[in-house]
Each structure stands twice: as C-alpha cells, then as structure tokens.
Amino acid sequence: MDGSNCLQTNLFLFCPHSYTYSNEVGYSSPYGYSTSVTPQQTMGYDISADYVDSTTTYEPRSTMIDSDFISGHSEYRIVGKLPCQNTTHPLGAEGDINDVLIKTLAEAHANTNHKLEIVHDMFRKPQDVSRLLYYKNMTQEELWLDCAEKLTAMIQQIIEFAKLIPGFMRLSQDDQILLLKTGSFELAIVRMSRLMDLSTNSVLYGDIMLPQEAFYTSDSFEMKLVACIFETAKSITELKLTETELALYQSLVLLWPERNGVRGNTEIQRLFNMSMSAIRQEIEANHAPLKGDVTVLDTLLNKIPTFRELSIMHMEALQKFKQDHPQYVFPALYKELFSIDSQQDLMT
Known about the structure:
The two termini are 27 Å apart. This protein has one domain (3-347): Orthogonal Bundle (Retinoid X Receptor), CATH 1.10.565. The strands form 4 sheets. A 3-stranded antiparallel beta sheet has the order 7-8-9. The chain has a two-stranded antiparallel sheet with strand order 1-2. The chain has a two-stranded antiparallel ribbon with strand order 3-4. It has 14 helices and 9 strands. With 348 residues, the protein is mainly alpha-helical. InterPro entries: NHR-like_dom_sf, Nucl_hrmn_rcpt_lig-bd, Nuclear_hrmn_rcpt, ThyrH_rcpt. Keywords: DNA-binding, Metal-binding, Receptor, Transcription, Transcription regulation, Zinc, Zinc-finger.
C-alpha cells in the first residue's frame, strides 16, 4: 500500500496493517489506560483548575458534554464563529459557544493523554539507575527508533484529539491530512510540556523520567534539536497552563490558518477564530499579564513560529539519518507523517 492510500484509510493516517482504528469516540492508550465514550452521554474530567508539575494535586470531577457538538454528526454546522443551524438555538451567545467548546476540548484532551495522577506518580517515583543508564548508553540508531516509537504513540493520541475538535472532521480530507502532517510534531511539543519536571529538567518518557542529556547523540545538529525542543517545552511548562488551556492551545496550533497548501482557508480560519475566542476567555480569567501588557496568550502565539522551525529541524535531522542509515525501518505512521512530501509542505 502506498503512502497516499494509507493516509486516506478510515479518513486519515491509520494503516490497516499496522494500527487499529475506530470511529467510536474512545481511546486505548499505550500507557495502560483506556477511555470509552457513548454517543448518548459523554463523561470526562473537569480539570481546568489543575496544571501539571511536581507539586500539583489531582481531583477529577465529571462533566456532561454535548455529544452532538463533539461528534459533529447532528444539526450543527460552522457559520462564522457559531456552530448552529438556526438562530433560535440556545447556544446563540458567543460566551455560551465558548463554554461548550472549552468543555469539549478539555474532555478530548483528558481522553487522549496520560491521566494526571499517572504523571504525578512518575514525577515522584525513585529513579531506576539501571534503566537510566540503559537509555543513556543507547546508540544513535537505537535512540532514533525508540523515540520514533514513542512519538508515534503520542501522535495517535493527537489524531484522536483532532477528530474531537468541533468542525475538524467537516474539513476536506486533504486539509485534515495536511494539518496533521504539518502540525502533529508541533502538538507533540505542546503535550511534552505537561510531562516536564522543571525541578530535574527531565521528561516523562514512556514510564521513566529521563533528563535532557539522555537524548543526546554524537551528532551536533541532533543535540541542537533536542536542546531546542526541551527549551520550548519548558517555556510552556513555566506558564503553568491549566489542562483546559493546553487543550485550547493545541486546537489553536493545529488550526493555524497560515499553513501552506490548505484549500479550505475560510473554514479553517473560522475554526481557528472559535479556538482563539475560547482560549482568550479562559486565559484572561486565569492569568494576569506577565509583564506590562504582555499576556500569556501573546507569549503562546509567539511560540508558534518556533514550533514550525523545530518541525523543519526534525525533518532535516530525520532525512540525514535515513540517508546515513537506509536499512532502518520506522513505524508506518511515522514514515507517512514525516515523509519528503511533509518536508516540502513545511518548507514551501
């Protein structure tokens, strides 16, 4: 099966010979937890008051989310900023739309991420020195393949999250694929930020906390890439975003309307505007300006060009590795997302 056909299987990005895909709203994580959501009743965690670091606590509270708004299968359609079909719908006010979008994306984020108590437990877990040495002693080739496996698992979660963004599944299939091919690495960095322990400069990698230097190889460009990724992820962690804000930020980054090659610019801009309105409401309620009139949202938006630069750096490092080591086989989804075509999409 060629890359194009494989990307289009079941709408996008899951090869039937490699991955199990379902249109049901539910997810089984490689990290040992699962979620299952019925169309009639969508339950989740309202964790907007929590953020992840080595000191925070976790208290799940259930919320009821409009399943029609999540699935996009009912009468809702995107018109301007409002997902409605008639003007008498009770969600007519922008504030109400924001509230529904905020709850929807918060639940999508919770259902496609490590549970917070798992992250917290791993932060506090005593370091396994033998396993740490195992990773530090990996060859460049072993480290590349292991990181590709971990990144692929995270991207599977990101795809599930994208499917739950209201209006995303109504975009053309080509635009869905392009947004994910050019944006998945960027969202992985955002998600990495909630796995960072600033006190030790380490990240939750699978089921172990690893320091930055564990990912270094003898290649100077790869070392620069690792350092820049850690620096960017840490800078997001330092903003102490809530889980809900991280969910909205991921939607904003993925739907960035200036991506090259998208066809439905108007539709993507509308979805982006919805996410922008919602994250502005959420951040203004939770965060004071950082310095003068510079807000947390300003800082987050200014990071988006950095994400693009890191995506390009990752593609360049990958292409060099593949040229030097053509015998190594990467996961199918990873190969398709980060193909030469993907690099051209980023560079043009």
